[in-house]
Structures are given as C-alpha cells and as structure tokens.
Amino acid sequence: MTAPLAWQKSTYSQDQGDCVELAEHRGAVLLRESDNPTVVLTTTRQELAHFLQVIKIGATATRAPRP
User: Fold this and answer.
1) What is the pTM of this model?
2) Contact (CB, 8 A) for 45 and 59
3) In angstroms, rounded to a whole number, what is the distance separating the alpha carbons of residues 57 and 67?
4) CA distances from 44 to 5, 13, 50, 57 (A)
C-alpha cells in the first residue's frame, strides 16, 4: 500500500479555496487546482522552474509604469 500524497498549498493561496497545490511523487512534481483535485498535471522540477521563471519575466515586462 502506498502512502497518500502530501499536497502543499501555494503561499499565495487564499482561504476561500482557490489554491494551487503541489506534491512530489517518484521524482515528478504534481500540480492541481483545489477546486478540481481530480485533474493533476505532472512535470519535472526543471520544467516547473523554467515555467515559473518565464511567468515572472512576462509579468515584469507587461507591468504598466506607475504614474
């Protein structure tokens, strides 16, 4: 019998339940939305790190200048 996955919520998650959760399983990173926990995306640490880096760069590049 296998142990249940230890899902962790994002630090940006709110108490209302709109959460991104991550778990590790056999070297893979699993992601799910707390509102629909049966849909799970699987990736690697490297791919997730690259994805987050691209998001951060894009968010910085598209910010409107402050008045």
Assistant:
1) 0.72
2) no
3) 22
4) 16, 22, 10, 20
Q: What is the mean pLDDT of each run of 10 residues along the chain (67 residues)?
A: 82 74 94 91 95 84 61
Structure tokens at 16: 């209302």
Tokens matching residue 36: 């629909």
In which region does residue 26 sit, left (phi positive, over 0), alpha (psi from -120 to 50) or beta (all else)?
Answer: left
Beta bridge partners of 41: 31
End-to-end CA distance of the chain: 59
- The identity of residue 50, as a single letter, is H
Distance CA 2, CA 5 (A): 9
CA distance 28 to 64: 36
Q: What is the amino acid identity at position 33?
A: E
